[in-house]
Amino acid sequence: MAQVPQTFLDALAVRTWCGLALGALGRAREEIDAINVYPVADGDTGTNLYLTLESAATAVEAVFAGYETGAGKPSLADAVHAMAHGALIGARGNSGTILAQLLRGMAQVLAEGGEAAHIDGAGLRLALRRAADSAWQAVAHPVEGTVLTVASAAAEAAEEAEGDCGTVARAAYEGALTALAATPGQLPVLGRAGVVDAGGRGLVAVLGALVEAFTGEAVREAPAAPESLAAEESGQAPDAVSGGHARVESMCDADLCAEGSENGGPAYEVIYLLEAGDTAVARLRERLDALGDSLVVVGGDGLWNVHVHVDDAGAAVEAGVEAGRPYRIRITHFGLGDVHTGGERPPRERAQRAVVAVVPGEGLAGLYTEAGATTVLARPGEPPASGELVQAVRRAHAREVVLLPNDAELRHTAAAAAEQARAEGIRVALIPTRSAVQGIAALAVHAPDRRFDEDVVQMTAAAGATRYAELVVAERQSWTTAGICQAGDVLGLIDGDVAVIGPDVTATARTVLDRMLQAGGELVTLVVGDGAPETVAEQLEARVRESYLAVDTVVYRGGRQGTLLLIGVE
What we know:
This protein is an alpha+beta fold. The chain is built from 20 helices and 18 strands.
C-alpha cells in the first residue's frame, strides 16, 4: 500500500503505522511461529505478536471512528494512548506482552506534548529510547539475544541519526536488523537451532512498517535464519548459503525444543489483566518471580498485564487476587512430553466438527465448554479481535467448524475470521447469533453426526426462533426508543432495542419477560450476572409458573458478564 511520505509523526501516521505493522506481522506470522524456540518452543510468537498488534490497531481505529461523527480529529496523544491501551489489554504471550510495553513506552513520550499535533525526529528518538528502557525494566530477568536486545539496538541507532522521522525510523530499523542477525551468537538455544530470535524478528517487522509509514517505501523483510540475513547483506541468494533454510526446517528436533535444552521448564503459562496499585504490583512481582520464570509485568496507572510460566497456576492467580482484581485469565498447559521436556508431541487427529463460540462471562464459558464448544471469552468493552477467533478455530482442530459470535457487533469480526479460516482449508459456517442465549439454543440442537449443512440449518433455525433480552444499568442520561433514561436507571432491551426503563432490576425484568411471552414461547432461559439481585431468578421462575403454565424455565449463572441478566424465549 503506497503511502505519501511525511517528515513528522501525527495521529494519522500512528494509524497508518498500525495498519502496516499488522499487515507485516500477518505476512510473517507463520515464519515467526516456526522459529520460536525461546523462552518456550511453543510455536506461537508470531501469532501472539499479531494478536497484540491487532488489538492496538483496533483501538486506534475506534478513536478515529469516534471523531467521524463530530468535528475535529484525534490528537497524537489520543492515538498513541489508544494504541498503548489496546496493546496492553490484547497482549498475548511473552513476546506480545513485551511489545505492549514497547508501545506503552513510546506513547509516554509521544503524548507528553498534550494536544500537540505532531512530533519530529528528535521526539521519535526519545520515544524509541523510552520504549527499549521500559521493556527491559518490565522483564524480571532480561536476557541478551532476545527482542530486548533488538529494541535497544534500534534505540541506539536512532540516537545516532539526524533528520526527520523517516530518517530516524530507517536508522532504527537498520540497527534492529543488524542486532537480529547477531542474536544466535548471544543465545545458545538460537545458535543450536540456526535461527534468529522470533520476538526480535517480529519487532523488526514492526519497525519496518514504521519506516514505510513515513517514507511510503516498503523495506526488505528480515529472514528467519542468520545465514540468510548475511546472504542478503552480501548479495547472495539464501539457498546458496550453507544450512540456510534447511536448518530452520529441522530446528524442532528433540534436542532443540527444550527451554535452555538442559532442564525442563514450568508446566503452565498464566496471563491475566490486573487492576492494582503500584505497591501491590511490586509485591506481586516478587511473589511470581519466586513461583516461576519468564515473568513480564507491563502497564501502569492501575491496569497491568501479567505474564508468567509456573508449575502452580492456581498460586499465580491467587497472587493476582491478593494484589488486586485479575480478569481475562488465560492458563495454557504446556503438557507432558512437550516443548519443555524435549519429547515429541504426537500429532492430534482432527475432529470432524466443532463449535466455536464467543461468550460474555466465565459462567457461560463453563456451560458452553461442558457442551463441547471451544470458547472465546469476551469482556465488556473488550471484544475479541478476528485473529483471536481464528486462533480459537485452529484450537478446535476440526475439519468443520460452526462459529457463534453471540453479539451483533461481532458480525464483521466473525466474518473476517471465518474467511481466514476457510483460506486455511477449514470449512466454516457462521451463524449470526446476536446473544449468548441464541447460542445456547443453537448448541442445544447441534448434532455432529448430521450432515454439516443440515446441522447448520437446524442450529440457525433454533437461534432465529429465540428472542433475546438483556438488563443493563444506564451510565448517563440519554434518549432511547423507550424514552429518556437517567444515569442509574435499569434498561430492559429486547432484541437489541430499549423497551423498558425502570428503577428496579426485578420489576423491570418481570415487565420485559411478560412482553416477550405475550408473543408465545415454550422455554425461558435466564442467565444471571454477578451484579443482579440474588432473588431475581427465583422471582422470575415463580412468575412463569403462575402465569404461563406451559412454559419451562432454565437458569444459568453467567458470572461477570457485563449485563445484569440475559433472557431468552424460544
